[in-house]
């Protein structure tokens, strides 16, 4: 089993890169695990309380569950990946049955901050886009897809997202084996990662 970690700031293009990488792989060969599925269960809080959570701090992630799920997959066991709702800021209570495959791609802003998880990755990738580009993408995506408005996105950017990015996320670039610049669509980098995967699968 090959485990690839793909980190990078919000809006850097992690999900887009993952989708491009897996385009040529067969479903039965690859699992994608998103760190977003592992935000802490906050059902004990009201919606108002949940909106105030710092979702860019490592503590917001249930890393224990993520570690145990990755270990299970490595051991050939099936897991139940939680489903997360950005609109509700909480897990939905549903799960997705995820079976072990030859390649596992784990993507998320904070995945390289955790030593145990970092050590499980065979390849560590950091996706980089400039912060103004990421903010523009985040604004468009959160307003169009995640039910936010301009004020909410800018408030979160200033209060938590930018400082957490500088404190926790950007420094993990030093752990990366490969850094993919994505201020433009980077097909060359995607081709290189696809080639590495195909070689490892052969
Ligand atoms: N290289 C790129 N150039 C322009 N827009 C991009 C690029 N990569 C991603 N996007 C767009 O930016 C937004 C955020 O990308 P996404 O892949 O969801 O980022 P992340 O998963 O890192 O938060 C999406 O709307 C996506 O279509
Ligand atoms: O309930 C939530 C949980 C997280 N967020 C924001 O999501 C991004 C991480 O997701 P990406 O897909 O990598 O952008 C993070 O910056 C959190 O601020 C949220 O808005 N609501």
TrEMBL record:
Every Phosphoribulokinase/uridine kinase domain range: 3-188
Alphabetized InterPro entries for the sequence: P-loop_NTPase, PRK/URK, Uridine_kinase-like
Record field: catalytic activity: uridine + ATP = UMP + ADP + H(+); cytidine + ATP = CMP + ADP + H(+)
Enzyme Commission numbers on file: 2.7.1.48
Superkingdom of this protein's organism: Bacteria
GO molecular function list: uridine kinase activity
Primary enzyme class: transferase
Localization terms from the record: Cytoplasm
Keywords: ATP-binding, Cytoplasm, Kinase, Nucleotide-binding, Transferase
Keyword Ion transport appears in the UniProt entry: no
Keyword set includes Ribonucleoprotein: no
Name of one Pfam family that matches: PRK
Pathway per the UniProt entry: Pyrimidine metabolism; UMP biosynthesis via salvage pathway; UMP from uridine: step 1/1; Pyrimidine metabolism; CTP biosynthesis via salvage pathway; CTP from cytidine: step 1/3
Predominant location category: cytoplasm
Family: Belongs to the uridine kinase family.
NCBIfam families: PRK05480.1 (NF004018), udk (TIGR00235)
Name this protein carries in UniProt: Uridine kinase
């Amino acid at each position: 089993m090959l485990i690839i970690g793909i980190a990078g700031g919000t809006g850097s293009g992690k999900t887009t890169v993952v989708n491009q990488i897996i385009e040529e792989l067969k479903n039965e060969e690859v699992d994608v695990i998103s760190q977003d599925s592992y935000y802490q269960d906050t059902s004990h809080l009201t919606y108002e309380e949940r909106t105030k959570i710092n979702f860019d701090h490592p503590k917001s992630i249930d890393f224990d569950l993520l570690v145990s799920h990755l270990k299970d997959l490595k051991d050939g066991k099936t897991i139940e990946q939680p489903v997360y709702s950005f609109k509700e800021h909480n897990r939905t209570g549903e799960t997705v049955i995820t079976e072990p495959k030859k390649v596992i791609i784990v993507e998320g802003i904070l995945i390289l901050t955790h030593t145990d998880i970092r050590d499980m990755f065979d390849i560590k990738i950091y996706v980089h886009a400039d912060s103004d580009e990421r903010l523009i993408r985040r604004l468009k995506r959160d307003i169009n897809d995640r039910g936010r408005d301009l004020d909410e996105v800018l408030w979160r950017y200033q209060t938590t997202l930018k400082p957490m990015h500088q404190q926790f996320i950007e420094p993990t670039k030093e752990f990366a084996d490969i850094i993919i610049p994505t201020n433009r669509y980077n097909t060359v980098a995607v081709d290189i990662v696809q080639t590495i995967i195909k070689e490892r699968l052969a």
